[in-house]
Fold each of these.
Amino acid sequence: MSSYDESQERFEEFLRTYKDDQGTLTYWTRVQQMSINDETSVSIDFQDLISFDNVFMTLAAEDPLKFIETVNDALVAVLRVEDPDYVNSIDITLIKARITNYSEHVALRAIRSKHIGKLLHISGIMMRASEVKPLLVQAVFQCRICDEKIPQTQEEGRYTEPVRCPLCDKKTPMRLLSQESQFRDWQKVRIQESPEELPPGQMPRSIDVILEGDVVDVSRPGDLVKVTGILQTTPDFSRRGGRLATFNIFIEANGVEISEKEHEQIEISEED
Ligand SMILES: [Zn+2]
């Protein structure tokens, strides 16, 4: 058995058996109520998880993507046993164990290149929120010449068409079949250092955070939010359109907590 399988089983055990100070089966109760509440995710406090088994600390630090995949797979596996009808009725790629309160809290101004690809915990005031847009994740294209349907996974938010038709072997622009393709809710928000975190005399720093699935629209501009997610990069371009060797950074959110609503003092704006 690989360590991956072992940690997946261990996480399933955590979901089934973890009790809080009052002896409540915190996560198990939530898992059982998912279908009743029409929920697709369960938020997991990382501090609870590592108090259950410290092995998750190592896994999350060494391979954040594998860690997130492991806990998601474990949640799906548990639901398949407990609530198979619910699992069969929804898109299972939407089922998420969302990690909050990760151990490595980094101030926005302390984010550096060494954090790229790592799981981080950040906090700040939400300043702007984009509209919620559909993000294409699994496309079905149709060849304009022979009508063949061609599925194509979309990677990292880039629109990708098949280069040529596998049936008639022609290079042709494809038609996207929206009805047969899968989309996910997507939103970009901007988070700025809160006044308490701001060193005297400094301008506040901010970072873009990408929200997907059931965490879109859970917070509003002006909220103090805490996000656990992975620091990702996108290419930077010069004014003439040439690709630069520098990159822009953003946080791909996994778990989101709203710790305080403070709508009064902050000048807020919504933009596209
Ligand atoms: Zn064709």
Amino acid sequence: MGLENRYYYEEGIILFKKKVGEGDLLLTIYGKEKGKFLAIARGALKIKNRLRGKVNIFSIGKGYFVKRREVDLLIFWDSYEKFFEIIKDVDKFIILSKYLKKADKFIPLEVKDLEIYEYLYKFLKNWNLINKYSGDVFLIKLLQKLGYISKVELKCKGCDKDLLKDEYVYFDLDNRKIYCEDCRTLKSLKIKSEEVIKFNEILDRTFDELIMGETGFSDKIFNLIDRMIERIEQEV
Ligand SMILES: [Zn+2]
């Protein structure tokens, strides 16, 4: 590898930072070209280091990196947008970090995806609107973009019976399909059909529409969504 190929610029969002070694930071960055990747900011916590105070969590900017066999090194970071307001608001910081950590489990390393980049950016941009509801919506829409979930048909997977008119249906968390009472699987959850309809609605609408508009979603549906996310977490 020639010297010129060892260095590169990358625009991205710093999603996480973790102290490692003697004053170094291990960063998780979502880059426009690289997707999610790790980089070490060597000495970033040391006084008089050029990176000190520059590599802030949630900052969006451009970095200059050098390739390493293990983890690349960050040489310089220039922030365009810092989102200091999030860091100052302890409650929001905690809730945003919690959802980003959950999201992190599903986002593969080094897969370029501009849609995911834009989505993470939008999530940070709307930081003051993020709560349990919009955080869950964020995860659901992310899982949809990554191909983990899709709309659920209100039809029995076993006997093909149309279940649109049934009040309750059985939802199998393993294959994320619906069953009627007769065909239900052992591990399926009894849920209201309405929850399935609401779930499909979330998948049909954009993140903006969902967090800006009236929610109209009951807590119940988030119970289903929590279980679904928990189950998918076990798969990855
Ligand atoms: Zn059936």
